[in-house]
Amino acid sequence: MSASQTGGPTPIPVVIVGAGPAGVTAATLLGQYGVECLVLDRWDGVYPQPRAVHLDDEVYRILARLGIAEAFSLVSRPTLGLQLVDRDHRVLAVFHREGDAGQHGYPRANMFDQPELEHLLRVNLKSQPTVTLRGNCEVTDVTQDGHGRVRVDFTDSLTGEPETVLATYVLGCDGANSIVRTAIGSTMEDLKFEQRWLVVDVSSEVELDQWEGVHQVCDPHRAATYMRIGTSRYRWEFQLLEGEAADDYGSIDALVPLLSPWIRGVPRESLGLVRVAEYTFRAQIADRWRDRNIFLLGDAAHLTPPFIGQGLCAGVRDSMNLSWKLAGVLSGDLSPSVLDTYQTERKPHARAMIKLARLIGAAMSRGGKAGDVLRKLIAPRLHLLPGLRDRILDSETPPLTRSALVHRPALARSLAGRLCPNARLDDGDARFDDQAGGRFVLVTTESLTPQQRTLLAGRGAGLVEAPPKSALRAWLATGRTTAALVRPDYTVMAAGRDVASLIDSTPRFAPTPA
Predict the structure, then answer these.
(1) Is the dihedral of CA 439, 441, 447, 450 positive or negative?
(2) What is the pLDDT of residue 368?
(3) What is the arithmetic mean of pLDDT over 356-370?
(4) SS3 for 194?
(5) Which of 125, 144, 143 is nearest to 134 (CA)?
(6) In this predicted structure, what is the pLDDT of residue 512?
């Protein structure tokens, strides 16, 4: 599709560079609001190599919003928690999770194969008539004309022909080596973590007979992680030593010295090597996530070590945060100034998760006396500390910081910035998300007047009344409030006891769905 094919100078509302999880999630969400999008990706189809293997219940909830929760449940595996072991594989501590659903209605930790997830995302994207996905497109430059239009230059790798499209907005979802990030002059801030690791994926129909959770080997010489990611798929990650490379471990026989604690008694011929690769785990975050009408999402904006399984999650959260705001601006419901909240809200959240991952990585691999004390004395007792076990297993991530769309008091405790739980609404199967429908929703314990109901409906907002003894009423009570205004991304915009004030602050948001 060239500029002339888009109707002369009329730009496409949104062009997305990159069709990984962040890009396809953003495209699907925008498509659900009826926004025309063009997605450009360098690959013809799903990138075949497994990379991310974990997502939490907050992101599972987003998959449900996209329409693939049931399909994802068939290709994913809830995990039972976390086990810390020393270099001799003696158990230091176990944080056991029963695999039950969290407050959002989905398992709090889920293992999967990334190509399978991406296949589900792409198949599902076909149901959005306003979205076009083009593969074999290598984006070469992105420029802005100063008049609200963005020019995207790319080359069709099949024909070799250069092409151009004009866009109102461009989302850079093009990974760690982002051409979009380079185009806007954004640079990555180094958060002081860099380690070389070997990533090994193995398939086997023979049960390895291991504890069905994540194994973290805490060893300054050779830290490691093991996890089962499917019925017959397993993932190991080992810290590489000086002078080692992935080529040293190109076969099962070469890997046996590393895998032996987990594969004792398993015939080598029953183990199939899916992939072995070297990765440099880094902690980085972009200094700017936006330049006028261009935005960065996913690995283009942040890189996190994998120790808490939040890399893919962060990119999907970026898409959830930005997409509804773009849809509202494009429909004329929301002021373009709301787009300033994207970086304001997402960057501190991403930084917090990166710091947590960096801390866990250091605890696994740090040498010296401090590391020995942590592993030998503190780790075995962590599960005994009041409340810590629940906190480690709790998948809830930090609240968003204050912004024009998060009315969070500076000092007072508030639900603002937190996610509204996807709680059951009655004794049946209906949950909050079933009623939300991508709108603003007022959750309240009070009965509204007919005039208040009319005002909410006129602004495109929904209403959920929390009856006595309901989970939503209990949640409101934790914030010492009786009502909360929940955004289309399930984040609480504002909460309080003055329902009339919350209704008055509800933005008009009614983009036309596809």
Answers:
(1) negative
(2) 46
(3) 72
(4) strand
(5) 125
(6) 72
With cut-offs at 50, 70 and 90, classify the pLDDT of residue 383: very low
Lowest mean pLDDT among 428-432, 444-448, 468-472: 428-432
Secondary structure (DSSP) of 213-256: SEEEE--SSS-EEEEE-SSSEEEEEEEPPTT--GGGG-SHHHHH
- Exposed/middle/buried for 149, CB within 10 Å: 0-12, 13-18, 19+? middle
**Two structure tokens written together for 233:** 């798929």
pLDDT confidence bin for 94, thresholds 50/70/90 = confident
The residues facing 272 across adjacent strands are 203
Q: Classify residue 424 by its DSSP letter.
A: B
Long-range contact pairs involving 88-93 (C-beta distance under 8 Å, separation at least 24): 89/217, 89/261, 92/218, 92/375, 92/379, 92/380, 93/379, 93/380, 93/381, 93/382, 93/383
Instruction: Collapse the DSSP code of 286 into the 3-class scheme (helix H, G, I; strand E, B; otherwise coil) and give the result.
Output: strand
Indicate whether this model's pTM tops 0.90. Answer: yes
Helix (H) or strand (E) holding 65: helix 57-66
Torsion angle of the four alpha carbons 224, 175, 67, 123, in this order, in degrees rounded to the nearest 10:
-100
Distant-in-sequence, close-in-space partners of 469: CB < 8 Å, separation ≥ 6: none
Average pLDDT, the chain: 90
Name the residue among 278, 284, 276, 275 with its Cα closest to residue 178.
284
Q: Residues of the chain with pLDDT > 90: what percent?
A: 76
Residue by residue, DSSP assigns 85-137 as E-TT--EEEEEE----B-TTSSBSEEE--HHHHHHHHHHHHTT-TTEEEE-SE
Beta bridge partners of 227: 235
Task: Return the pLDDT at 5.
Answer: 43
Give the 3-state secondary structure of residue 152.
strand
Phi-psi region of 460 (alpha: psi -120 to 50; beta: other; left: phi over 0): left
d(CA 180, CA 186): 9
Q: Which of 482, 476, 511 is nearest to 499 (CA)?
A: 482
Q: Which residues contact 47 (CB under 8 A, 6 or more apart)?
A: 20, 115, 118
Largest CA distance in the chain: 74
Beta bridge partners of 491: 419
For tokens 């997830």, the residue is: 117
Beta bridge partners of 169: 14
Residue 134 has pLDDT above 70, yes or no: yes
Say if strands 492-496 and 462-465 run parallel, antiparallel, or are unpaired: unpaired
Q: Once rounded to an integer, what is the mean pLDDT over residues 34-52?
A: 93
Count CB neighbours of 387 within 10 A.
8
